[in-house]
Amino acid sequence: MTTLVDRPYTALIVIDLQNGVVANAYRRQEVLRAVKTLVERARGAHVPVVWVRHSDDELEAGSGAWQIVDELSPGPAEVIIEKSYRDAFEDTDLEQVLSTLGVGKLIVTGAQTDMCIRSTLHGALVRGYDATLVSDAHTTEDMTQWGAPPPDGVIAHTNLYWSNQRAPGRVGGVTESKDVDFGLTADS
Asked: What's the pTM?
């Protein structure tokens, strides 16, 4: 259904699962296990896995905090998109990578729910992609001291509102990791 022409394929997007990002994340181990299983399933189905890694003043490129967590490992042929804004499309080559792969549908996982996940989902939808959020494969940390709801509330709310996202010719959506079907294309 994507509005992107000649983009029938799906990609798994793994956002910011880095040591410094998920050190104190809600349900960290469960989310990392779900993402690891999705990565293995995507690879088995020959679906591209695209990794996204953030850097900024607090997450310095090359530092231990910047590294992708030990529980996950990008494959040698898998692309790592380096970003410095919350939306993984902003000032990166993500769009070019997805275009080259013929991808019009994204399956989104990672961290932080209320920052880079939401920003990238919206960035994908406005650029013409279908974007499905995996409900049990994204997380955030507790930011209640700054007025945010508790992490479980942030995650539940994001799952709720993304489940009904629509735009002309493209859709958002939410699914559990067990229900992700990598056999589906963007036209399914």
From this structure: 0.95
